[in-house]
Amino acid sequence: MKRQFLILLIFVILFTHPQLTRAQSSEPLTATFADFGNNEITLRGMFGYGSAWIPLQSNWHINQPMQVTLRYIASPLLHPFRTTVTVLANGQEVASFRLAENSSLEQTQTFTIPPNLLRGDGVSLQFNGFLRLTDAECEETNNPGQWLTILDSSTITFLPEPVTNMPDLAELDREIVVRNQVLGNVPVIFVLPDAPDQNVLTVAGKIAARLGRESGSHLMPFAVETADSLTMTQRESANLVVIGTPATQPLIAEMAAALPARLVQDGFVTADNRLSHDGVIQLFASPWNSGRRVLLVSGGDEDALMQAGEVFADDEAFQALHGRYQFVRELPETAVVTPPPPWQNNIATFAQLGDRDRTIEGTGIFEEYYFFRRPPGWIFDNGSRLTLHIATSPALRPQDSYIAAFINDIHIGTVRVGEGVETGDVVSFDLPVALINETASGARPQTLVLRLVVASFMAETLCEQTHPQAAWIRVYADSFFEVPHVYMGLPDLAAFPYPFVSDKPEAPVSLVVPPAPTVAEIAQALNLAAVLGRYAPAEFELVVETADTVTPTSHSQHHLIILGTRNRQPLIDELLTELSDVPGFQEDDGLYQALTGDNTAVLREAPSPWGNDRVILLVLARTENGAQLALDLLYNRTPPTEHPGSVLLVEDGLRAQILYRSVEISPSPRMNEVAREPVVSPPPPWVVITGVLVLTTLIVLGIVYWYTRRGLE
Amino acid sequence: MFINEQQVVQLLNQIIAANQWVFIAALQLTGELLWLVNPLLFIWVWYSGASPHVQNTRSREAVHANRQRVLLAFLSASVAFALARFGSGLFARPRPFVELALQVPVSDEIWQGIVAALGSTGSFPGDVAAFWFAQAVVLRGAGRGIGWLTAGIGFVFVFLRMGLGYEYPTDVIAGVCLGVLLGTAVLLARHRLNWLTRPVLMMFGRFPVIMYPLALLFLFDITQRMAWLFAIIAVLLGI
Lengths: 713, 239
Known about the structure:
The complex is a heterodimer.
Chain A: H1 2-15, E1 20-21, E2 29-32, E3 41-44, E4 49-55, E5 60-62, E6 66-74, E7 84-89, E8 92-98, E9 107-113, E10 122-130, E11 147-150, E12 155-158, E13 160-162, H2 172-176, E14 188-192, H3 198-215, E15 222-226, H4 232-237, E16 239-243, H5 250-254, E17 263-264, E18 267-269, E19 275-276, E20 280-286, E21 289-298, H6 302-313, H7 315-320, E22 325-327, E23 347-349, E24 358-361, E25 364-373, E26 378-380, E27 385-392, E28 402-407, E29 410-416, E30 426-430, H8 433-437, E31 447-456, E32 472-475, E33 480-482, E34 485-487, E35 509-513, H9 519-535, E36 542-546, E37 559-562, H10 570-578, E38 600-607, E39 615-620, H11 624-636, E40 647-651, E41 657-660, H12 685-709
Parallel strand pairs in A: 14-15, 14-16, 16-21, 35-36, 35-37, 37-39
Antiparallel strand pairs in A: 1-2, 2-12, 3-11, 4-10, 5-13, 6-9, 6-11, 6-12, 7-8, 7-10, 17-18, 18-19, 20-21, 20-22, 23-33, 24-32, 25-31, 26-34, 27-30, 27-32, 27-33, 28-29, 28-31, 38-39, 38-40, 40-41
Helix pairs in contact in A: 3-6, 3-9, 9-11
Chain B: H1 5-17, H2 20-47, H3 57-91, H4 96-99, H5 108-118, H6 127-139, H7 144-163, H8 169-188, H9 194-206, H10 208-223, H11 227-237
């Protein structure tokens, strides 16, 4: 049986895609470590350590053992009979092996992981080496010849089955936007009524923003279809978000048999068997594929539909959703207790930013990376600090054990750790805000890549075997940033999505699509809504509407994002005539002169001509492809540029280029008030004390000599 | 062009480590031998001036003065050594062999033993320098030659210790200053310390059978880096 299974595996590996095999249901999948985003893993030193993360798609269920085929090369100096490698899967030992002969050539080692360890978001593979050079009792622990590299071409074979459990609204975002889509792609399609009106568009925009906010980096671009245009293939392969009333959305009737809250005429039946026309949110297995999900947002009429849409804009209401369906009226009125959002009172802990306690075990020099984003529009002010809460093993040798912290490769401080070092558990570093806010090249990175270089070394006495796990350093998730701040000047595309979303109360945001929008144009708006939701630090008011409903009077208090090409979006020319010309582009065609072809677009941010303190963002393109290119940039790279500027040229395959930097961009003047480093560093205490001792000795000897000369002993 | 103290240590290390036997000899000299030389010096000074053939008042006074200096030298050196050890614990300055890449032409086993023994204590200020120069100042009163000889031996030891990576130049300078200051202080206060030295010397005259074996024990304790003495003091102080 085992042989048959192996033959099947070999067949799959040989006759399908060389790197990635995507099988249909009930066929094993094979993928390399590289497919899962892992690089080569090198174990160094006698107690070499390495790890890999194998994410599991959230709509998979794995009931069969996972087979891992490790490919590795190792130092030819290693002793093959004494060297061992032990593999742990999610903390449980699953395999140990000795080194093969001729290990300098690529070797393979196969083992399986039992299915009971394949739960949660993925599998953490940990490789613990015991790399021996000799069979002597005493041996060096950090000889450079002690190494073993696990190649990223190592493979994993497993048999995923679709999750069949009953979907729950409490897990709505995970059910619709599948997590860890490394190997497959489960698209999300918004299914709207034919000729959707502004209410439907706004409800869709709010749902998209909520999914963007909850899904974070797992977000994939949404597609949009109408009930008529939705193909059978799409029904079977995608998770669907169906919006509309029973009267306007024919797909609801098609799915009637699968609905948790039964459809009766133009209403839905409640749990107590009562017909309701209230807004309702339902989540259920797709009638076309039980492995896919359908989210239905509906109601007896347009008002009820809007009510249902509001749930997605409200944090507390959304967190109160649970079960297979929920009528809006049944949502509890009392506020749900939620963890406080980050950056309140200028403070954000690592836990609030989505991280957890981290423990670095073993001896050597390790690098731990944290990826954070500063809130939209923030410029850190003087007095900003990073405070690390750490705990260290008492076995560490303080002479060469330390933690060095870097943000965006800027050194912010180093602290010595180990026995006897009285730094305490909490260490604060003042942030060099001028360097972090703006690099030497003028870029203003919104991402904060915190790199902790952790050096752990233990005092080793000759021949004394020390367990490598005795060396550990823990960084707690209650470590925090404390950042007084000011806001970036506007208009500035480097600040995007500020001011459209912000931690301070902001004006409503209108995403304006052309009249009678196409599904592609609606998809652009929904994906942009998802981006705004993803980076919004607080609730914000979002409206998706068509150009014919937007007037200077009605939208004087709105921030506006205008989508669509020039020939389909009448607001573009209307607004351009009211805006001041950009220097260099002052003729009739204005900024359109900058477009070098069909696959180019210009993003322009400017003060709104309709209202004070409001901002508009225009997408200028001659073709749909050009407009899509600009939207893709906003979607995939937020902000679209790291350099300040209000006009950005986007070209296919090229780096976006700032065309104009308006004068009103004014970074905080306090950015330059950073205290200078002292020219000469203060001397260590022993130099000062030696100087004092020498001086005292000379004075005492001088006095003694003087008295002796005068015979006054 | 300035030469920093790390470079001084590395330069001395290159000189000593150029020959394996020189390096081993330096290890031995600064190890047990250093602490054997000191009791010999004390015995020399203790008996200098004493003659079984000449017994007059002048010679007895000279012997008495020399023996008083030995007691004072022991006192000042012990206090200087204890203060230096206290300072090394306080500042915990890593020794050069921890921080610098030095040449060590001996087996790893021997070197690791030394590193394990010394690596747990700091290098500042130099305890050996303080010990030797405190007694050098006091013994100088017993004869310039003895004083300079003691200081000379001290210099040899501290240079060897720098070359072996035990101490930095600032450690040594601080140790020398500490020793000189304490030696000078004891020397200036020698008349005020008669309450201590006179009864001890009187007991040597009256109860030689008890006192000389006791003195031998003290001398032996010096070869053990005064481990017993500090242990007794620690017990008495309840540390």
